[in-house]
Every structure is written in C-alpha cells, then in structure tokens.
C-alpha cells in the first residue's frame, strides 16, 4: 500500500493502463448492463413516440413539454463547463496542488458534453429531424435562436477541450511510449504525428492561451451566458426570467464539476493506491472549493426565494410557492445545508475531514444540483404568466423511460472513463515529475506547465 510520503512517478500513472483488476471488469460489466437497459427503453420510445414519457403538451394534459430530459441536459452541460473551468484555472493560475486532477477535469468535460449532446438527440423524439430539419435550418436560425447559440457554444467548447487535451497528451505519450501497450500503437502514432521536443514550449503557451480563453468565455458564453439566456429572456415564464440566472447557472456548474472530480479522484485513489498522487491535502482543498461555490449556489437560491415571496407579482409568487412546497426541492436544499455544515466544520478543524465524508458530500451535491435543474425546468413551464389551463389539474413525474435515460447516461460516462483509463494516463506526467523532464531532453521539460 502506497503512502502519501512516497513521491509519485511515471509508474503510478501507468498502473491503470498496464494492470487490470477484477473490479475493473465488474464496473465495466455493471455499466454495460445499465446501458443495455437504457437502449431498450430508448428503443421503446422510438417505436411508440414521446407519449411513453410523462412529457406532454403543457396545460391540457397537465404535463410539461420539457422535464427530466432538459433538466439533465442542463446538469450535464454544467458539469462539463465547470470541469474545463477547473482545469483552466489550475493551468492559468499555477495551482500546482490540483494539477493531478487537471486532466481528469478535462476528461469529465468531454464525457459530460457527450451526454448532454445525447439528450438533445433523445428529446427530439425522432433523431432524423436533426438531419432533415435542424441542421439545414442552422445558417439562419443561429442569428435568432438562443437554442442554436447553445449548440454552437457547446460544440465550440468540445473542440477547445479536445484540442486542449490532445496537446498535453502528446508530451506524455512521447516520453512514455516505450512503456505503453503495443496493441494501441496505431493510435499513439496518430496522436504523435509531427511531434518534436522543440514544440513543448509552444504547446505550453498554446495551452495557457486556451485556458485564458476558457476562463474569459465561461461567464460570457457558457453557463454564465448562453445557457441561462435560453430561459432568462422569457418574461412570460416568471420562474425563468431574470438576470440572476447567469450567476446561478455558473455556481451550479462549478459546484457540480468539483463534486464530479472529487468522486473520480476518490475512485482512482482507491483502485490504484494513489494516496501519494491524490493526497488528503488535495481532497481537503477541493472540498473547501466545493463549499465556496456551494455557498454561492444556496445564497442565490435564497435571493430567488425572497424575490418570489416578498411583494412579488401573482405569477412569480405562484411559481415560488409551488417550488417551496415541493418535497424534492426541500430535500435538495436541506442536503446542501448539511453538506455546507460539514465542509465549513472541516475547514475550521482538520480532524473533522475524512475522504469518505467528502465523497458522500459530493454525491449529495450532485443529487441536489440535478434536482434543482429538473424542478427549474418543470416549475417554470407549469406556471406561465398567462395560465390558459388554470382549472386543469395535472402534475409531472419522470417516467421509467426518462429515469432509464439518466441511469444510462451515467453508465455511458462511466464506460467512457473506463475505456480512456486503459488508453492514456489520466494524470499528467508533469504532475508526478514536479514539472521536471525526467528524460533529460526537450526544451519544454524545464518550465512549468502553467508557464
């Protein structure tokens, strides 16, 4: 068993690639089984239409046109955007303590963006409409449709993250190539096309500028911009309207992403004896950041509640009262309060901290943010400014098909990580070499990654 006093090295980051335990096969088999169930449920939906869900025409059917599908879409996009912001901050501001999780945050971004894209396909009901209708109309809808802006920035961030990740992978694969599996040689050769050690300094600068672009764009275009604009510019929906949606979405994104990184790091530390790679001090720091952004999330929720119940117009008050009477919302916010209590207690007294408590806190936060996003979508639709169906009773509860989609996307993201962890190091070589080029070559080895 490794100890935290041991210095991490290349052997550590190669262990997941070269060694496969029984737990890997168990996790892979379990995730695959869940994906099969999800595909069966989706096939059922494709055969019978969206009627098999509880998504119906708003009003007369007592349902909503958007429910868990769009709520989970927003949640996945938030995790993705928060993940790449975390990685960019590590590189841009020289936060070396968190460098071991930088690449994991980038991979989380790619996985989460892929799941968000899948929800767009699922929610269309007929995926062929994306080819026959949405894509052909994109050139003119992008000028006026917030949804088209949404797709545009998501695609942009996917490309930026993949580029970001690919540039840093070249450095590691070149130096570890002789120890990587030969059966993936074609893939490694493709990634290293045109590589020269002389490019290391250039790549470091390119990655730094990409990180700067991500940090600047996040509050302007992503979960602080385009995504909340989809909702906040609709005054006819009092549950959505308002400038507070930008910072609210951004804090939820960062809170969810840090929770995801903590969970992934915890699992890798347990599976590969990485106590000296993912140290207690790093986890304690991540937990404090989780507390900071979690506090902002709860504070902005409180602001929305006050605005909705104190001298508010009738429609806005109706939405807020409905939310406050919703047990799911009460449990979610209560969960956040308990988590914040733990985080700030361990910040004051290190003896309160434990990895297991931080893991439970992270899972609880992901539940709370997912619940809030689903309720945000549903309650916003059910209580419009002009209620045409006030006397028609109805409610929305996610159907088994929708629940299967959530389980399926979680399982698919798990499979994504299980595959990637056998192909590439999920911790950068720089992070275990102290930014020192252990091979004695390369112009980039003597400088810090954060440049």
Describe the overall structure.
Mean pLDDT is 84; it is low at 435-451. The protein has 15 helices and no strands. The chain has helices spanning 10-18, 22-48, 68-92, 102-123, 128-141, 146-176, 185-191, 200-232, 245-272, 280-309, 314-324, 327-348, 355-382, 400-420, 429-433. With 451 residues, it is mainly α. The protein is 69% helix and 0% strand. The relative contact order is 0.18. Helix 8 packs across helix 9. The chain has a single domain, classed as Formate dehydrogenase/DMSO reductase fold (Up-down Bundle), CATH 1.20.1630.10.
SSE order and pairing:
Elements: H1 10-18, H2 22-48, H3 68-92, H4 102-123, H5 128-141, H6 146-176, H7 185-191, H8 200-232, H9 245-272, H10 280-309, H11 314-324, H12 327-348, H13 355-382, H14 400-420, H15 429-433
């Amino acid at each position: 068993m490794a100890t935290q006093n041991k210095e991490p090295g290349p052997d550590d980051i190669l262990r997941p690639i070269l060694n496969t335990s029984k737990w890997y096969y168990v996790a892979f088999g379990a995730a695959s089984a869940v994906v099969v169930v999800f595909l069966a449920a989706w096939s059922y939906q494709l055969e019978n239409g969206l009627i098999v869900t509880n998504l119906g025409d708003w009003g007369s059917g007592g349902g909503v046109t958007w429910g868990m599908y769009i709520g989970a879409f927003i949640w996945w996009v938030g995790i993705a955007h928060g993940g790449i912001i975390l990685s960019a901050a590590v590189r841009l501001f020289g936060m070396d303590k968190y460098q071991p999780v930088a690449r994991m945050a980038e991979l989380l971004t790619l996985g989460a963006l892929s799941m968000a894209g899948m929800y767009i396909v699922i929610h269309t009901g007929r995926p062929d409409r994306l080819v026959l209708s949405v894509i052909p109309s994109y050139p003119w809808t992008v000028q006026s449709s917030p949804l088209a802006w949404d797709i545009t920035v998501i695609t942009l961030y996917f490309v930026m993250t993949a580029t970001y990740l690919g540039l840093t992978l070249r450095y590691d694969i070149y130096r570890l190539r002789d120890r990587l599996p030969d059966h993936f040689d074609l893939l490694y050769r493709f990634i290293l096309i045109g590589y020269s050690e002389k490019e290391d300094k250039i790549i470091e600068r390119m990655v730094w500028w990409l990180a700067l672009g991500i940090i600047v764009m996040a509050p302007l275009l992503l979960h602080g911009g385009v995504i909340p604009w989809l909702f906040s510019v609709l005054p006819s929906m009092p549950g959505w309207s308002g400038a507070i949606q930008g910072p609210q979405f951004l804090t939820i994104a960062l809170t969810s992403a840090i929770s995801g990184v903590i969970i992934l790091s915890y699992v890798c530390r347990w599976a590969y004896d990485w106590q000296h790679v993912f140290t207690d001090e790093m986890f304690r720091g991540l937990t404090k950041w989780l507390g900071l952004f979690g506090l902002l999330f709860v504070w902005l929720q409180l602001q929305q509640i006050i605005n909705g119940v104190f001298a508010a117009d009738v429609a806005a008050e109706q939405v807020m009262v409905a939310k406050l009477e919703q047990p799911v919302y009460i449990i979610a916010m209560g969960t956040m309060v308990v988590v914040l209590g733990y985080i700030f207690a361990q910040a004051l007294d290190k003896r309160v901290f434990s990895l297991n408590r931080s893991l439970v806190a992270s899972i609880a936060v992901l539940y709370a943010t997912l619940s809030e996003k689903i309720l945000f979508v549903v309650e916003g639709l059910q209580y419009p400014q002009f209620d045409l169906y006030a006397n028609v009773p109805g409610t929305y509860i996610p159907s088994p098909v929708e629940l299967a989609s959530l389980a399926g996307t979680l399982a698919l993201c798990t499979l994504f990580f299980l595959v990637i962890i056998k192909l590439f190091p999920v911790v950068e070589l720089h992070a275990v070499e102290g930014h020192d080029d252990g091979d004695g070559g390369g112009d980039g080895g003597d400088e810090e990654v954060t440049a």
